């Protein structure tokens, strides 16, 4: 009896976890190791240079997420972004995305210092959008789990600026 209940509970949990996850229009994709948990169904650029190339050739803004595997703030932000279907859909349809666990040599990607987590936007003309930032004065590009609404607003701004400038 207990085994049957446990089996039924396991099946119920497995089925319920399948609902609610973002699935791209093209259908479910094989999870990429490049996602590092930020969105397994998304296509991630492997390097900054590749992200710039895709951004320019597809005329989409590049969103770069700097994070560390052992940072609790990065882990908390990753969890809410990965679980938010609206953000996952926007990332899939409107952005080229890259997550980096190391700093680049490009000084434009750390306009106010090197800290994690931070999110920067780069337009297809390869201009870092330093004007699109978060709510903190001492860490302009930092976001916390409670800042998802601001992140969505900034994602919209990156798209609108792209359309109005090109």
From TrEMBL:
Q: Which family does it belong to?
A: Belongs to the AGR family.
* SUPFAM superfamilies per record: Thioredoxin-like
Name under which the protein is recorded = Anterior gradient protein 2 homolog
The primary site where this protein sits is: endoplasmic reticulum
Signal peptide span: 1-20
**Which Pfam families is this protein grouped with?**
Thioredoxin_7
The entry's cellular-component GO terms read: endoplasmic reticulum; extracellular region
Query: In which compartments does the protein localize?
Result: Endoplasmic reticulum; Secreted
Keyword vocabulary terms for this entry: Endoplasmic reticulum, Secreted, Signal
Domain of life according to the entry: Eukaryota
Q: Mind telling me which InterPro entries this protein's record contains?
A: AGR/TXD (IPR051099), Thioredoxin-like_sf (IPR036249)
């Amino acid at each position: 009896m207990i085994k049957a209940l446990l089996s039924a509970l396991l099946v119920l949990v497995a089925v319920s976890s399948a609902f609610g996850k973002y699935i791209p229009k093209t259908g479910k994709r094989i999870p990429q190791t490049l996602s590092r948990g930020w969105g397994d169904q998304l296509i991630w650029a492997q390097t900054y240079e590749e992200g710039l190339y895709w951004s320019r050739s597809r005329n989409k803004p590049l969103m770069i997420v700097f994070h560390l595997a052992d940072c609790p703030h990065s882990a908390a932000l990753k969890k809410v972004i990965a679980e938010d279907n609206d953000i996952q859909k926007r990332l899939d349809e409107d952005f080229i995305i890259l997550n980096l666990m190391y700093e680049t040599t490009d000084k434009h990607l750390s306009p106010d210092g090197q800290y994690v987590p931070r999110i920067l936007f780069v337009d297809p003309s390869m201009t870092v959008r330093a004007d699109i930032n978060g709510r903190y004065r001492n860490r302009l590009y930092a976001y916390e789990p409670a800042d998802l609404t601001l992140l969505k607003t900034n994602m919209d701004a990156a798209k609108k600026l792209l359309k109005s400038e090109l």
